[in-house]
Specification:
CATH class: Alpha Beta
Number of domains: 1
Number of helices: 7
Shape: globular
Number of strands: 11
Order of helices and strands: HEEEHEEHHEEEEHHEEH
Radius of gyration: 17 Å
Strand content: 15-25%
Distance between the termini: 37 Å
Structural class: alpha+beta
Helix content: 25-40%
CATH superfamily: Aminohydrolase, N-terminal nucleophile (Ntn) domain
Strand order of the largest sheet: 1-8-9-2-3-10-11
CATH architecture: 4-Layer Sandwich
């Protein structure tokens, strides 16, 4: 209820500030201006959102040098889409993004609307200009925003049915390699998301290291139980090799799907 009230409050104080342009094409995008000094509470994160046009599944995966990153970054609902919200993060961007998609907004319109609504309540320590988030709908359309003051290096790249984004990274090669890995990997969407995380880490990843990783894949009635839209929801909250541990869980889930005659 507190989250619902918070979102309602954000809508009520809708801002008329000028919003930076939304990037929704395949070019790599880097935040152009000087970034804020990184406080201890800010941690590097990289994520990938992706869509499988054959199955209709949509998913999101993340790795970060923070405990239990999945609790704040990844959001999704079958038939609606997924959201990754990170950097100088406002967690309400996740449910706001899903609600706007439900109302029929395109991902690009949803990104613009969320930024316009943001009242920027703590511009010195938690500036709106440092937000980074990506919204993908259930058709694989995506829009991603990296604020000009997200902590260096910050940027994103949009590919075919995917977007990779991150902050406090080794450089643009991280998101570029993530997109390439997603596009070149075959098999279930979870395996493609996993390959993207592994490629991002191999390219230097988060310069502060690793601690947690998470993945969410949704599809209407595609879960293993009745009336279950969650294909998988996996979290590695604290581990010296969180991406490797996530790989173990992804492959375990794949084996379970195979035993049930699913892809």
């Amino acid at each position: 209820m507190r989250m619902i009230a918070r979102i309602a409050a954000l809508v009520a104080v809708c801002s008329v500030q000028e919003v930076p342009p939304v990037v929704a094409q395949s070019d790599t995008h880097e935040a152009p201006e000087a970034r804020v000094e990184v406080p201890d509470s800010h941690v590097g994160t990289f994520s990938i959102v992706g869509f499988d046009p054959e199955t209709g599944e949509v998913g999101v995966a993340v790795q970060s040098r923070v405990f239990s990153v999945g609790n704040g970054v990844i959001w999704g609902e079958a038939g609606v889409g997924v959201v990754a919200t990170q950097a100088i993060v406002d967690v309400s961007y996740g449910p706001q993004g899903l609600q706007l998609l439900k109302e029929g907004h395109s991902p690009a319109d949803a990104v613009r609307e969320i930024l316009a609504r943001d009242p920027d309540p703590d511009p010195e320590r938690w500036t709106r200009e440092g937000r980074q988030f990506s919204i993908m709908n259930a058709r694989g359309e995506v829009a991603t925003h990296t604020g000009p003051r997200a902590s260096e290096w910050a940027g994103h790249r949009i590919g075919e049915y995917c977007s990779a984004q991150g902050n406090i990274l080794a450089g643009p090669q991280v998101v570029e390699d993530m997109v390439e890995a997603f596009e070149s990997t075959s098999g279930h969407l979870s395996l493609r998301l996993q390959a993207a995380l592994e490629a991002g880490q191999a390219a230097g990843g988060d310069t502060r290291g690793m601690q947690s990783a998470a993945m969410l894949v949704v599809g209407e009635d595609m879960g293993v139980w009745l009336n279950n839209d969650v294909v998988l929801r996996l979290q590695v909250d604290d581990h010296p090799e969180p991406i490797a541990e996530l790989r173990r869980l992804v492959e375990m889930a794949a084996a379970r799907r195979e035993r049930r005659g699913r892809r």
